[in-house]
Amino acid sequence: MSISVHLLVLSLLLVIGSYDDDVQFFVYGVVDEYRRDDFPAEFVFGSGTSAYQVEGAVLEDGRSFSIWDTFAHSGYYNGANGDVACDGYHKYKEDIQLIADTGLEAYRFSISWSRLIPNGRGPVNVMGLQFYNDFINRLIANGIQPHVTLHHDDLPQILEDEYGGWLSRKSMKDFVAYADVCFREFGDRVLHWTSFNEANVFALGGYDMGFSPPGRCSSPFGVFINCSRGDSTSEPYLAAHHLLLAHASAVRLYREKYKAMQHGFVGINVLSYWFEPYTNTTEDVKATERANDFYLGWFLNPLVNGDYPEIVKKNAGNRIPSFTKIESERVKGSFDFFGINHYNNFYVKDNPSSLETDIRDVNADMAATLISADGGSEPLPTQFPVTPSGLQNLLNYLKEEYGNPPIYIHENGQVQARNGTLMDTARVEYLHAYIGALLDALRNGSNTRGYFAWSLLDLFELLGGYNIGYGLYYVDLDDKELTRYPKLSAHWYANFLKGHNVTAIIPSLNLTKDSFVSSH
Ligand SMILES: *[C@@H]1O[C@H](CO)[C@@H](O)[C@H](O)[C@H]1NC(C)=O
Ligand SMILES: *[C@@H]1O[C@H](CO)[C@@H](O)[C@H](O)[C@H]1NC(C)=O
Ligand SMILES: *[C@@H]1O[C@H](CO)[C@@H](O)[C@H](O)[C@H]1NC(C)=O
Ligand SMILES: *[C@@H]1O[C@H](CO)[C@@H](O)[C@H](O)[C@H]1NC(C)=O
Ligand SMILES: *[C@@H]1O[C@H](CO)[C@@H](O)[C@H](O)[C@H]1NC(C)=O
Ligand SMILES: *[C@@H]1O[C@H](CO)[C@@H](O)[C@H](O)[C@H]1NC(C)=O
């Protein structure tokens, strides 16, 4: 990020943060001020993680490998993997205490399919069942709502090996059987279910660009990976199609078998940037609509309207499967909410030349170039620009375009290098600004029901492994106890959740500029 953009971001936000080393006070002043009470009482605030990113214990108590274990062990993260992660499988009691101490009202986590059903289908692993039962019971005992994701990039590897995972229609039946076990065993206490985390990124990363499990792609479409197997021109569309059908079938099962008794809700999650046209030319404005259709419409249009957006069907041609009439009817309306992960914005520039070749992936079909809002070329910024109007615009867009569906913001947060500092002022600024934007969107009629800061802990990140972190809590990897330490953001969030005015001075936290746990 260039210095001028830094200055621009700072001046736009009118954020003044300063330290007084003598009294160890953090003085935080912004134009906006709000408190928990400004949000509806039934709105929930929380934070989250996912199974592979925190649990570790990957071959313990009967768990088998998922496609993410395999992907990590293929060397993608230069030797790092989730074998231990935050050791959440053993430290969950301590973690739930942190969750309670922080005042979180809800906690988002995922169930490891290969821990619960190690063969992918068939017998349930009693140890896995007991772990998630204890986990959920402990959350409930502390008054914390569990929000559970069923698939967070971690299909059992055994199903990938057997029939190619999500490329096969067989995956749908196994997913529904797995969902059935979860609804049956945990649905008396879990009311909020999400079928797939970042379904769009899973399809793009896993089958087009190869940067996420199962890491499939074909040349020249791989990003940071040599494509050795896959077909980026068609597999992302095929996998996405099966995700949608599997999701719809799981929702149907829930509605027919459990809804009347359990009264819960089932949704799906997508990653969503906010897109702005790079210029106001008709070409760039149209390219921006296409970007929305390819990123969001790819999943949300079938769910709301029963089919893919016209432009997606047109540009992907026979590489995208079509829904039969029955499938279309099943997919349409098969959601109670949308989970949205949002971090940053992109400018969109028309790129018509990408349609001139027959060998096209999803990005080429989109015929648009995404340009990072901070002007940088880094795919993974060391820090996101703080542009909360993106979230506000996105929530307005979902309201207008998709009939104001219930929304949970499942992930939002600031990334930083993971170097041991607890003074994550940039994260506090980010969270303060985005929660403020959310409040503005709610006041403007958005049907958003909850907000989950990503992430509770510094964990094993999909992009970046252990080099970066979004955590409210730092996990010291040099300490064999993997001790958790609250960052300033944990104190700030707790302060907000306790009902305090978040523009106020945060009292002594015993944190100073020199508060480092260790340096890496
Ligand atoms: C890809 O393959 C090339 C040539 O074999 C090699 O130089 C490069 O390091 C590989 N890149 C990755 C990310 O594996
Ligand atoms: C496009 O037009 C809008 C509204 O007039 C304006 O706010 C925006 O700055 C313009 N964008 C560019 C890139 O010129
Ligand atoms: C850690 O990173 C933050 C920003 O991400 C930076 O301000 C700080 O100086 C770094 N500290 C160390 C010890 O490298
Ligand atoms: C409020 O919503 C309306 C209609 O959805 C939209 O046109 C307007 O820009 C929004 N205002 C703000 C401040 O977000
Ligand atoms: C919030 O705190 C600031 C600074 O202490 C104060 O000026 C402001 O009046 C407070 N607002 C509310 C709503 O309590
Ligand atoms: C800060 O540290 C001092 C000395 O270690 C301790 O007495 C005090 O209770 C701490 N304050 C807080 C708010 O933790």
The CATH topology annotation reads as TIM Barrel
**Structural class of the secondary structure composition?**
alpha/beta
Ions, cofactors, ligands: which are bound?
A: 2-acetamido-2-deoxy-beta-D-glucopyranose
The CATH C-level name is: Alpha Beta
Strand sequence of the main sheet, in spatial order? 3-4-5-6-7-9-12-14
Q: What is the residue-averaged pLDDT?
A: 90
CATH superfamily: Glycosidases
Task: State the helical fraction.
Answer: 25-40%
Would you write up a description of this structure?
- The protein has 520 residues and is of the alpha/beta class.
- The protein has one domain (3-515): Glycosidases (TIM Barrel), CATH 3.20.20.80.
- The chain is 40% helix and 16% strand.
- It contains 17 helices and 17 strands.
- The strands form five sheets. It has an eight-stranded parallel β-barrel, surrounded by five helices. The protein has a three-stranded mixed sheet with strand order 8-10-11.
- Helix 15 (389-401) packs parallel to helix 16 (425-443) and helix 16 (425-443) runs parallel beside helix 17.
- It is globular, with a radius of gyration of 22 Å.
- Residues 1-31 and 504-508 have low confidence and may be disordered.
- The structure holds 2-acetamido-2-deoxy-beta-D-glucopyranose (NAG) (6 copies).
- One 2-acetamido-2-deoxy-beta-D-glucopyranose binds at residues 33, 501, 503-504.
